[in-house]
Amino acid sequence: MSSLALRRKTYKGVDDGNNDGGSISNDDKDSKSDPPFTTTIATRHRRRIFRVLTAAVITFATGLINLLSSDKINKDIEGGNAGTTTSNKISDKIDLDPILAKSLKRTSGEGWTINPEIYSDAAKKQNYDCKWIEFESTTGKRAEFCGHTVPDGVTGTIEREKRFHHCNPLPKFWEDAPKTESSIYVEIGANIGSCVMEMLLSTDAKIIAFEPHPRNLFSVQKSISKLDKSYQDRVVIVPVALGEESAESVIFAAEGNMGNSNVGMIVRDNGKQQFREEEQHKIRVERLDSILDATSSLLHVSFMKLDAQGFECHIVNGMSQELANKIHKIKFEVSLNHLRNQKCTDLLTRFRSRGFSIKTENEKRKIEGDTDQFRRMHELIAVHE
Q1: 128-133, long-range: CB within 8 Å, 24+ apart, which pairs?
Q2: Residue 50: partners with Cβ closer than 8 Å, 6 or more residues away
Q3: Exposure b/e, 30-45, CB count within 10 A at least 16 = b
Q4: Are the C-beta atoms of residues 214 and 127 closer than 8 Å to each other?
């Protein structure tokens, strides 16, 4: 039998790629008298069959893995924009800074965990989205910022001025405050994150920020998710309100001013202000001393910003003396309307009971008495001297 006949040898059901396959040819039948050649070709085809089957198994397994991975990603970004993020977290590889880790007594509680999923149930249900704005810090650094798509005063201000003016003094307060290697900045009532962004871009502060309202929380986290990982690793978001006991409550947010988010009751900035039902959410309330670790020798809060729409007394009550001793300075807002509704007109007295002195924002004058002397909104300083 010729070498050409051998090269064309084909076995039933298997195509070697050189002809159309099919039944054994007459020439092939003659080859039965030639065992060595038959054995060689049979072995070759068995190997070819093995390779084909192996490739098929690998292809099937790869496809299955890709399908499962795709399904997970789709669930992670459900309700979001896949073009901007493929994760439901601020960062897949976020590392909790050692200083922040040692400042925290715990990282989760009933119904919450730090740095929660961006696309929460509320975010998915109400289709939260961003109005992307260019943010420019007081030091000239720029970043993409997630403003609200619903009418909102702070979002409007950042659109016009590129930042929020109430945050402008914060970097100087941080710069001037006494610090150790483990010093942190704490923000209570982060709103949409304008002051968190200012502190991230303009200082080297390690930040723990508290914000309970889901829509505000969404904006804070989306803005942070756009930053370089080196910035992301410097901030921890805690999605709870602070008070004097661990409990469940309801938060209400004013139409046109998401900054007026009230815990436990509605407090209007003016008589015409409306509160939409869809912006009412169940939230968790925790004591500050149950989250910050006052027993840690490393905890040192050089500077804190507190803006809780009249809920400040409850927050101070949730601050043990041991924790208060670890806080150097607090910048806080006095709104007599909100304080009266929350039965907190003795706020300054409560600060003094924790060892703080009360001063004007520029710290040039010491304040005696209590909040009833302020007919308009004021920014004050509580400081351990």
Answers
A1: 128/79, 128/214, 128/215, 128/218, 129/81, 130/219, 130/222, 131/155, 133/158, 133/159, 133/162
A2: none
A3: ebeeeeeebeebeeeb
A4: no
pLDDT in tens, 267-297: 999 889 999 999 999 999 999 999 999 999 9
Instruction: Tell me whether residue 256 is exposed, middle or buried, using C-beta atoms within 10 angstroms of its C-beta: 0 to 12, 13 to 18, 19 or more.
Output: middle
Total-model pTM: 0.77
Which H/E stretch holds residue 278? none
Helix (H) or strand (E) holding 259: strand 257-263
Query: Model confidence over 294-312: pLDDT tens digits?
Result: 999 999 999 999 999 999 9
247-254 vs 257-263, strand pairing mode = antiparallel
Beta carbons of 267 and 310 less than 8 angstroms apart: yes
Query: Which residue carries 């209400």 as its tokens?
Result: 252
Helix/strand/coil for 292:
strand
The pLDDT score that the predictor gives to residue 219 is 98
What pLDDT digit, counting tens, does each position of 339-380 carry? 999 999 999 999 999 999 999 999 999 999 999 999 899 999
At position 129, the amino acid (one-letter code) is: D
- What is the token pair recorded at 359? 């001063």
Across the range 25-33, mean pLDDT stands at 41
How far is residue 188's CA from residue 205's CA, in Å, rounded to a whole number? 15
Instruction: Establish how many alpha carbons lie within 13 A of residue 249's alpha carbon, considering only the half-sphere containing its beta carbon.
Output: 22
Tally Cβ neighbours within 10 Å of residue 87. 17
Q: Among 233, 236, 234, 222, which residue's Cα sits nearest to residue 192?
A: 222
